[in-house]
Amino acid sequence: MSAAAARVHDVLLPQPPGGVGAGAALAVLVHVGLVAALTVSVDWRASTPEVVSAELWAAVPQVAAPAAEPVPPPTPPAPVVAPPPPPPVAAQPTEADIAIERAERKKAEDERKRAEAEAERKRERDRELAEAERKKRERAEAAARERAEEERATLQREENLRRMMAQAGGGTGAPGSTGTAARDAAPSATYAGRIVAAVRKNIVFTGAAATEATTEVEVRTAPAGTILSARIVKASGHKDWDEAVMRGLDKTAKLPPDTDGRVPSTLLLVFRPKE
Predict the structure, then answer these.
(1) Where along the chain do its domains lie?
(2) What is the CATH number of domain 186-271?
(3) Given a cut of 70, is residue 43 above it in pLDDT?
(4) pLDDT digits 0-9 by tens, 45-55
């Protein structure tokens, strides 16, 4: 045991100088092998190569390489469009603003209605004035014609009376006075009532007036009965009723004759709402 341990211990220890013979022999052997390998390699490269010839009958067609597909140009990037700014948020109206707007609309509507009503009243007044003017012209023309006719009729009546008086033995002066008295005679007792009834048919009154309301109208006529003028001499106190009476007279225009065939030149007519 001690001998083996001693040998192991000796191997591990450094060898003493003078023990390089084996290493030198190994190095010489390696160099000899290297020289032999180089010699063999150089001799193989120095041998003459074998010559081989070949005759070409036709050129071998060359297949053209496929054309390269053109590379499409790169797609430019889409322009960046900035989104539109959001619309401004309208301020919510307050209750006061709403009330003011409603008041302004109502005021404008009221003004429009007033303007329309005023325009309609003006048109109505213009129509009434035009109608009154037309009736006035018609009455004047009719009165002129009737006066001429009445004058001819009067002359004819006087001539007839003179002839009748002459035949009866009377003088020639009496017929003139008798004709004048006949023309100036008062209307019959029922004539005014008949005239009022005729005018009442043309009176349109939808308002309210007191039963005792009385409208007295003085009417002047031409000999043939055409109304020349009419004026209220006593108002009833109810303007609507008075105006309705005057409109009824305008529509009547001409009065019927009395029992003797005459129409008085002046009449006083009385109108009541409940008659």
Answers:
(1) 96-184, 186-271
(2) 3.30.1150.10
(3) no
(4) 555 666 666 66
